[in-house]
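To illustrate the input format used throughout this study, we show a single complete record. The first block contains the structure-token representation of the backbone; no residue identities are included at this stage. The design step must infer an amino acid for every position from geometry alone.
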């Protein structure tokens, strides 16, 4: 019996214009009205995820943000809060200082972007007041040293021609106590050790007393893989990468054709 639905945002619940379709929003509201608990499970910041709850969904739910480093319950209680160790971040930045990749530090709501190519957008949205420009890796190092700022995630991205070089650099970090995941063709995210969307959902399972076997979760990319593999009903999008499809319980339609709504409607018809 499906009692909990969790979904990734980019490439999953959101279409190519970074919007939640009317059909997806209505299906989620119908699920919540039927008594199913709901979560957005994203690499995005809390501010970014809150916008979708407030403007599009207009329901209560869990916010699993920053790849599970922070979880906020439906009533606003912080269930998980796992910032990265500043010493680990300092070591990553030191090793990356002369590499010429875009580097982003994610706080709870604000992100700090250094881009040698001077494009300060992120993979999920353009500039807004929560995006702070850094002129150098040294600027990022100063932000990391600020005791008033918690950093939950370090992100690296690059142009296609630099991908092999970036992957080699990331391999050099693997001895550190971190979790590296891939959320796009040229976009990689680093969290603290054992920080994943799956680990966050396991904590929600304990908190809510809903067995993980009764969770249905949707995803499309590498940072969704363990979540899709281990929950009771892991659903890959049609546009998901092959490794995610391979471990999924079922594959639904793509993110531009309301694949999330399609599967939720089947849940509400009690097909499973």
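Output of the design step:
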């Amino acid at each position: 019996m499906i009692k909990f639905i969790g979904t990734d945002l980019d490439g999953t619940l959101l279409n190519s214009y970074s919007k939640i379709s009317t059909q997806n929003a209505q299906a989620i509201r119908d699920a919540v009205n039927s008594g199913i608990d709901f979560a957005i499970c994203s690499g995005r910041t809390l501010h970014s995820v809150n916008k979708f709850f407030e403007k599009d969904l207009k329901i209560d739910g869990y916010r699993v943000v920053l790849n599970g480093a922070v979880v906020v319950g439906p009533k606003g209680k912080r269930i998980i809060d796992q910032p990265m160790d500043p010493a680990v971040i300092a070591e990553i930045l030191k090793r990356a200082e002369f590499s010429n990749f875009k580097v982003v530090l994610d706080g709870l709501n604000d992100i700090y972007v250094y881009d040698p190519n001077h494009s300060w957008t992120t993979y999920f949205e353009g500039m807004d007041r929560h995006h702070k420009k850094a002129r150098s890796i040294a600027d990022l190092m100063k932000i990391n040293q600020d005791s008033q700022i918690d950093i939950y995630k370090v992100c690296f991205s690059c142009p296609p021609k630099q991908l092999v070089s970036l992957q080699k650099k990331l391999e050099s970090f693997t001895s550190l106590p971190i979790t590296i995941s891939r959320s796009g063709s040229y976009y990689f995210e680093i969290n603290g050790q054992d920080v994943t969307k799956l680990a966050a959902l396991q904590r929600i399972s304990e908190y809510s007393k809903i067995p993980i076997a009764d969770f249905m979760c949707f995803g499309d990319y590498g940072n969704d893989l363990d979540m899709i593999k281990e929950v009771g009903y892991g659903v890959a999008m049609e546009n998901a990468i092959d490794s995610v499809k391979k471990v999924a319980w079922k594959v639904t339609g793509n993110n531009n054709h309301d694949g999330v709504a399609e599967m939720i409607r089947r849940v509400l018809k009690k097909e499973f």
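Structural context for interpreting the output: The two ends are 7 Å apart (CA to CA). The mean pLDDT is 94.
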